[in-house]
Design brief:
alpha/beta; Rossmann fold; 6 strands; 10% strand; 286 residues; binds thiamine diphosphate; binds magnesium ion; 4-stranded parallel sheet
Length: 286
């Protein structure tokens, strides 16, 4: 998945994004927790495709021949999203049908200004027990541990052993978005404590201590990172400015009075800036 593709959607240039079939990567869904029923539904579809393929192979005598590697689904969501009903329903279905799905909850301690203590009184991973599948809490700032547990859970799901819930215990060091100000609702000492556990610094220290990577490697990683960042910045600036009217046009297939009313409001509102734009252009010309 090209990172710049994602930004097309965030910038409003694309309404959908990409074809998930090309990338094996589902479209972004900004409705919290809606990802979980999508993932379980997809996983149950995979299960049914496999059963169908197995009976077709029996029927035409090709059973036992090499088959496609088994697939499973990974779904990521936050500690805040874990409180949504969608997650409960998804876990019930996933467990009952032993769907090949791995639930990955990134518990970063905050859902904007709401602390995770308000979402749960027990480690989120423990909830899995109630649904009847394993739950694992992993140090979310330990890259190697996260990779290991994810690989284990995915392999288990591929082998038909059903779902796993992984809770990655981590922290959101920065603000939720540019509209958020964490100084309003939490102590900076908490941020300082977690900064010391920075996963990238920890991994770098580990790789150096084990003699697995040296200065040349890390310089290259930094250069690659800078290059990627420059590419993403440039691609974003180069994107066309979306015409917001298309959002109104694409809401319903046919004309809708409410949408027409909102569009009329929007046009009047935008017209209010016309003088500013003219003044600016004149100012620039002078
Ligand atoms: C159903 C729904 N309710 C509310 C929101 C607004 N919202 C966007 S992000 C967010 C907090 C999410 O917290 P969490 O699930 O912990 O994820 P994090 O951003 O911390 O990774 C909220 C409430 C939304 N996008 N969808
Ligand atoms: Mg969170």
């Amino acid at each position: 998945m090209d990172l710049a593709e994602l930004l097309r959607q965030f910038r409003g240039v694309s309404n959908g994004g990409w074809n998930p079939k090309d990338t094996n990567f589902h479209l972004y869904t900004l409705v919290l927790a809606a990802q979980t029923p999508h993932a379980v539904g997809y996983a149950m579809g995979i299960q049914r495709d496999q059963k169908f393929a197995a009976s077709a192979a029996l029927a035409d005598g090709t059973a036992g021949h090499a088959t496609e590697p088994k697939a499973a689904v990974m779904v990521y969501f936050g500690d805040g999203a874990s409180s949504e009903g969608d997650v409960h329903e998804s876990m019930v279905f996933a467990s009952s049908y032993k769907a090949p799905v791995v639930f990955f909850c990134q518990n970063n301690h905050w859902a904007i200004s709401v602390p995770s203590s308000v979402q749960t009184r027990i480690p989120l991973a423990n909830r899995a027990k109630g649904y009847g599948f394993p739950g694992v809490r992993v140090d979310g700032n330990d890259v190697i541990a996260v990779h290991a547990v994810t690989e284990w859970a995915l392999e288990r799901a591929r082998q038909g052993e059903g779902p796993v819930l992984i809770e990655a215990f981590t922290y959101r060091v920065g603000a939720h978005t540019t509209a958020d100000d964490p100084t309003k609702y939490r102590e900076s000492a908490e941020e300082t404590r977690w900064r010391a556990k920075d996963p990238l610094e920890r991994l770098e220290k580990y790789l150096r201590a084990e003699g697995l990577a040296d200065d040349t490697f890390f310089e290259q990683v930094r250069a690659d990172g800078d290059e990627l960042a420059a590419y993403v910045r440039k691609t974003t600036y180069d994107l066309e400015t979306p015409d917001i009217r298309t959002a109104f046009a694409n809401t319903y297939v046919e004309a809708h009075p409410l949408v027409a009313e909102e569009l009329a409001w929007f046009e009047e509102y935008s017209a209010g800036f016309a003088d500013d734009a003219t003044a600016q252009a004149e100012g620039a010309a002078n």
